[in-house]
């Protein structure tokens, strides 16, 4: 694997201050949770729940052997994310992935889809957490879970940073696979998010079965606007076709 490229400013290093505060309040098992794919036009929303041992997290080697610390996946290059994703499963006490497909997102809306994906991830953990630590200010999970919301938890909490990396790497690999026979949409590069190539492909050939049909991007595509919130039986090409 080629050496990851360094950025001008080192990412902020995640720590255990939030987890230690929760443990002081009686929590034993803390699951850090983060999502990826919320703002994409295509593909699922993916959630990872990660439980650590509260031991020093792994680091990866950068240029010249300089250690690169675990942090929010958005602050790490793809090479660093891949390196951490190879180390984290063997270091964590447990982790699990949950997802909500485009069809479900269209049916129930993003907030409920995110809630369902998170519950699926938590249900798949080997232990039930005492506290779920969410990145952000909004508790989209709710009862019966005890939830702690922290803004920028993916930069401040090792548990959430680990979840951030694993969710991102999992979803990126999935989107690359989904786009293998549809290269014009650029899923390998844009992961289903808005991009010029993605928009051009949508305008030319319309949404695929992997697209969210309740998203407002369809309003900007007159030829395909009628598909908003409506799914046709798939044509032989796997495209959603013009009525």
Structure summarized in a few sentences:
The chain has 243 residues and is an alpha/beta fold. The protein contains eight helices and seven strands, in the order H-E-E-E-E-H-E-H-H-E-E-H-H-H-H.
Q: Mind explaining what this structure looks like?
A:
Its cofactor is Mg(2+); Mn(2+). Endonuclease that specifically degrades the RNA of RNA-DNA hybrids. A divalent metal cation binds at residues 34-35, 135. Its EC number is 3.1.26.4. The protein is an alpha/beta fold and 243 residues long. It folds into 2 domains: 17-178, Ribonuclease H-like superfamily/Ribonuclease H (Nucleotidyltransferase, domain 5, 2-Layer Sandwich), CATH 3.30.420.10; 183-227, no CATH class. It is 34% helix and 14% strand. The longest helix is centred in the C-terminal third of the chain and has 21 residues, at 158-178. The protein is globular. 40% of the residues are buried.
Question: Topology, pairings included?
Answer:
Blueprint: H1 17-24, E1 30-36, E2 45-51, E3 60-61, E4 67-68, H2 78-91, E5 94-100, H3 102-108, H4 110-123, E6 131-135, E7 147-150, H5 153-156, H6 158-178, H7 187-190, H8 196-205
Parallel strand pairs: 1-6, 6-7
Antiparallel strand pairs: 1-2, 2-5, 3-4
Pfam family, one: RNase_HII
Domain RNase H type-2: 28-235
Protein name: Ribonuclease HII
Radius of gyration: 19 Å
Which percent bin holds the helix content? Answer: 25-40%
Query: How would you sum up the global shape?
Result: globular
Structural classification: alpha/beta
Which regions contain 5 or more consecutive residues with pLDDT less than 50? Answer: 1-11, 233-243
CATH 2nd-level architecture of the largest domain: 2-Layer Sandwich
Q: Report the sheet with the most strands, covering strand number, pairing sense and barrel closure.
A: 5 strands, mixed
Number of structural units classed as domains = 2
Order of helices and strands: HEEEEHEHHEEHHHH
Count the E strands: 7
What is the level 1 CATH name of the largest domain? Alpha Beta
Overall mean pLDDT: 88
Pfam families: RNase_HII
Catalytic activity: Endonucleolytic cleavage to 5'-phosphomonoester
Enzyme class: hydrolase
Main location: cytoplasm
């Amino acid at each position: 694997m080629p050496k990851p490229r360094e950025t001008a400013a080192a990412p902020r290093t995640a720590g255990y201050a939030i987890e230690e505060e929760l443990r002081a309040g009686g929590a034993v098992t803390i699951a850090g949770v983060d999502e990826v794919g919320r703002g994409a036009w295509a593909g699922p929303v993916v959630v990872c729940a990660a439980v650590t041992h509260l031991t020093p997290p792994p680091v990866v080697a950068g240029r010249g052997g300089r250690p690169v610390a675990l942090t929010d996946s958005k602050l790490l290059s793809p090479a660093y994310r891949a390196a951490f994703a190879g180390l984290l499963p063997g270091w964590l006490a447990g982790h699990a992935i949950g997802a909500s497909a485009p069809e479900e997102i269209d049916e129930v809306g993003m907030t409920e889809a995110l809630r369902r994906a998170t519950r699926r991830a938590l249900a798949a953990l080997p232990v039930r957490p005492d506290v779920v630590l969410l990145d952000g200010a909004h508790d989209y999970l709710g009862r019966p879970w005890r939830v702690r919301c922290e803004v920028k938890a993916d930069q401040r909490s090792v548990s959430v940073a680990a979840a951030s990396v694993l969710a991102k790497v999992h979803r990126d690999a999935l989107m690359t696979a989904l786009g293998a026979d549809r290269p014009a949409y650029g899923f390998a590069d844009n992961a289903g998010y808005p991009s010029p190539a993605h928009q051009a492909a949508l305008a030319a050939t319309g949404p695929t079965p992997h697209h969210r049909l309740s998203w407002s991007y369809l309003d900007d595509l007159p030829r395909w606007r009628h598909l908003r919130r409506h799914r046709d039986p798939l044509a032989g090409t796997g495209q959603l076709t013009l009525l």
